[in-house]
Each structure stands twice: as C-alpha cells, then as structure tokens.
Amino acid sequence: MFTKEFVKEKSDYFENLSAEDLLRWVYENFENVGFTSSFSADDVSIIHMIKDIKPDALIIFIDTDYHFPETYQLVKKIKNEWDVNLKIIKPLISIEEQEKLYGEKLYEKDPDKCCEIRKVEPLKRVLDDLDVWITGMRRDQSPTRANIGKVETHKLPSGRTILKVNPIANWTRKDVWNYVHKHNLPYNPLYDQNYLSIGCAPCTRPVLEGEDERAGRWAGKGKLECGLHTFTQKE
Fold first, then answer.
1. 10-25: per-residue pLDDT in tens?
2. Which residues are known catalytic residues?
3. Is 179 exposed, middle or buried (0-12, 13-18, 19+ CB in 10 A)?
C-alpha cells in the first residue's frame, strides 16, 4: 500500500499522466482494484479504457432499485456486448422493506437517509475488500469536486486506508463527449434530453440553461452529493 506521503510527493507525476496511463499504472501495481460505475458517459469512457488494459477488471454497479429503465438497459448492453466483469451490489433491504420502516418516498422526506441505505452502505461493503477504488469524478462537475486529485489516499470508517483514483479528474464535459463520439461508445439516451448527471429516477431532473452539471440531482434539497464520495476521510 502506498502512503499518503508517497501520493503527495508524486502528485505532479500523476497529474501529468493521461487517463489511460494512470489506469495502466494502477493495474500494474495493485491487485484488489474496483471501479464503481453508474454507467454515465464518463464511466463508460473509463470502462472502455480499462477493458483494453485489463479485460477481467472488476466493475461495480450499485443497484439502488431506483435507476431509470434507460440506465438498466445500458448496463445490460455493456455487460453483454463488452463482456465486462460486472459485480452488481444491492442494498440490504428492498424498497418495500424500506417503506415499512420509514414510510413511502423517503427520498423526498430524507434524501440523505435514502442515499445512506441504498448507496453508501452497499459501497462500504465493497470498499472493505479493495485496496484501490477508481471513480469517474471530474473537477468541473460541481463545486464539491473542484479540488479532487487524480490519486488520493482515503481512510475508511473501518480505519483502513484505500487509494482513490480519479483518472479523468482534469477532463471537462466536452472531453468526455469527444471521447464518446471518437470511439462510438453507447451512452444513456437521457443525455439527449438534457439530463447531464443521471442518478436515481425520483431524484434526477434535466438540467436547465446555465446550471451546474449536477444541478439536476436532488433539486431543491440543498444537496449535491449522495454521500458516496463524502463518507471517507481524505488524508
């Protein structure tokens, strides 16, 4: 395991690596690696890179049971056509069980609690088995992501330290779509309806002119992150 001192010392080196070269570095140096994917255009681009570097690499999809039908269709298409090593993780309780415990539409009454149950808790289980966590986060997505590094060390609630790698942190949305079109990659058709960040169906709307990319998530709830990227402690 590389230390936080090593990561800080090599930050300029990592910053200057292309996304492909950074991913190659990861898979050459680590075995317990997982890429958590929502199958956004960003994530599909990364999967496309990964499959050429390590065809059997672990791709993780957290199925909240609330995704759009279009998202599920895309997941199935890429799994079958690209033959990726996909692991689907689900919450410990069903939507029906959740409604019995907390009432209907928890995502409206307490979106943080809903995200904790259906996203964060499943991710915590996944990360306990990994040494490296790859994500598709970019700095230009929202103010909460503006300062992310390409490689960071994060402490999990269990006390373990994990390497968090954001290979396209310095990409723009334009960079993502240039890559998608260059390689003729499949993407979620909701993007064509101005959904710029696609999460769970009840909590996602199209983005309006001039809004941040993630403004359509939890609109009106004063919330920009689901908690997947905030429950770990950056070292």
1. 889 999 999 999 999 9
2. 226
3. buried
